[in-house]
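Thread: N-oxalylglycine complex, take 2
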Amino acid sequence: MTVSIRQLHPHFVGEVEGIDLRQPLATADVDAIDEGMDRYAVLIFHDQNITDEQQLAFTRNFGEIEHAVGNSITASQGRRLGTEMADLSNLAQRDQIFQRDDRRRLFDLANRLWHSDSSFRVVPAKYSLLSARAVPAHGGNTEFADMRAAYDALDDRTRAEVADLVCEHSLMYSRGLLGFTEFTEEERKTFTPVRQRLVRTHPVTGRKSLFLASHAGGIVDWPMSEARSYLRDLSEHATQPEFVHVHQWRLHDLVIWDNRQTMHRVRRFDDVNEVRDMRRTTLIGDGPTAEQTPG
Ligand code: OGA
Ligand code: MN
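Output below.
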């Protein structure tokens, strides 16, 4: 079988056919997917009923797996999945749905804000691969925004203004937007802000994109409220409907997105009554985008 990709949105997003992710991939298939990612930034695969092991094996074709440590408030002994998988479900360790006031649920609600995965790490993520193992009857769509198209659409003044800006990202900033501000000393340490360039250049295509996320809570050398209002304006610009694709999940869909070129968010669903079991593997990016604060 050969891989074919159909573009779903004027700017980005491809739907892939002719591949079975349970099987080892031919080099040509890996190359086709990599090229598809460079071009479309989001790829959608339907009817891929895979196990965690198969998801991990498929993911390893594209780079090194990022361990899901330091991206949540779940203690390692309370994890439902291995550390090579990020748990995007609304389920606790024994598959019971989080109670409404469970702190882990409240923390995870920030996935409803636009973001790029692991922008709060010194080396932010390359691809995320999200597999739908259980989907709710209503809601829970994931939306994607094309940060290359958003960059291209900036006026010349703004493009010059953003060119050399560096932002500070932390999980505490995205949570703070929702009024979740109580962190233990240890969490504060884990979630220490990191620096990321606001404009990134794709290593293969050379296309520039805006590296935005709700995790961004400051701009280096800017007063905080000016930085936050500016980042809010940019995010509003970047997530206009013309740059956004809505993915409505079917059971056993797998979606890959490039965090260097897109933002995403999950939409609301009845998460205290319906199960949504989503499992993510994540690839480490090529390196830091900015120098970090000394010390
Ligand atoms: C993610 C995420 C979106 C979703 O997987 O990184 O933000 O649809 N989740 O659950
Ligand atoms: Mn995410």
